[in-house]
Amino acid sequence: MLKVLFGEKSTNCAGITRRSALQIGGLGFGGLNLSNLMSARAAKPAGVTRDTSVVWLWLNGGPTHIETFDPKMTAPKEYRSVSGEVKTRLPGVTLGGHFKGMAEQADRMTFVRSFVVPSSSHNTGAFWVNTGYGPRNRPSLGSITSRVRGPNHPLTGMPTYVQMGNIGFNTDAPVIPGSAWLGKAFGPFTPSGPSRANMNLTTQVSRLEDRRSLLKGLDKIRRDVDAKGVMDGIDGMNHQAFSLILGKATQAFDMKREDPRVVAKYGGGLGQSLLTARRLCEVGCGFVAVSLQGWDMHGNVAGGMNGRGPQVDRAVSAFVSDIHQRGLDKNILLVISGEFGRTPRINKNAGRDHWGPLSTLALAGGGLNMGQVVGKSSPKAEVPAGGKVGPQELMATVFHVLGIERETSFDDPAGRPIPMLGTGQPIKGLI
Hints:
The chain has twelve helices and 17 strands. It has helices at 34-37, 65-68, 100-104, 122-131, 141-149, 211-222, 238-246, 248-253, 260-266, 270-282, 301-325, 391-402; strands at 22-24, 27-29, 53-59, 85-87, 94-96, 109-115, 161-164, 287-292, 332-337, 341-342, 354-355, 359-365, 372-374, 376-377, 384-386, 409-411, 417-419.
């Protein structure tokens, strides 16, 4: 069912009351800003990219590396995983006890056990992982992808960069995965709102066939568009707006088109988000960020993992299996990360605190070498003991998968060319 409504008093969860809300499938696209989606492609793509996509699963709050992908069951009791461990398909490799599904897919995944973030602060760490740099005016990986490929797909109208859920905390959250000085046109198209089944813009579906009726609704949005010339004439983009609303884009969010057995395998919540991410990639999205909250486990890490671990395990194992069955494992890279790890030693509240010196990554697909562990940690999971990987190496790996040239640079507001990637090289063993 498609429902389109144009209303002046619709409100989304971000408090936007006058702008229309585009709500599709299991997600609500709040704060529709056509300057973000269909801005004129004044900037030429920086280079030819591959027909590939990245799904970035962000565990917001700093996931414990020990209870997830490096259980350390031979360490003293106060260090080892409180969730136990589970054997994987990889000889001698175990994961935290909640990840039985991922253990069955381990030969299709790679686990990095030596990832280092130069900060133990939530937002600073999130800046590092999402941009490759500290908290400065730097565009995120998603925005770089959008700038290189263009803000939306020329055939489907789909945004190149979609974000589901917050990355970071408080006022910095919208900035961390943002476009910085690249401009609003290359920021994430952000899903929000409670809708589970409809697209909402405020007129009846039948009236969408009346082009003039749609334009009247778009004119209301036009008044909210920034005045900096990001959107150079909405009339030239109306066909893209129609494509987004009525064309192939809507199919990505229509779960009735999906095999019910596949939907059931993913489950709800995070599972539905990852299934939607796969469908978005199939219709032209280049970078889809999905965030799962609740990983700041200063107390009762066992209880926290009981709530979060099974969600991740079910959704990720379904996703990895799905992209392989569809032959998409060469085209879609899944990255699982957070802003840092957690303290190796359990604290007095039975939790773990912030820990930048060591964390883990999990990756799947992207045409990379899978079925391995990269790097290793010290006996108590405190620091890397070999094969150190940092945000720049992760960034270079994503560049490789997306076909973004290492030398890509964009002029800052002062006209100075700023390289998007520093000295980092792709993670060893993956290419």
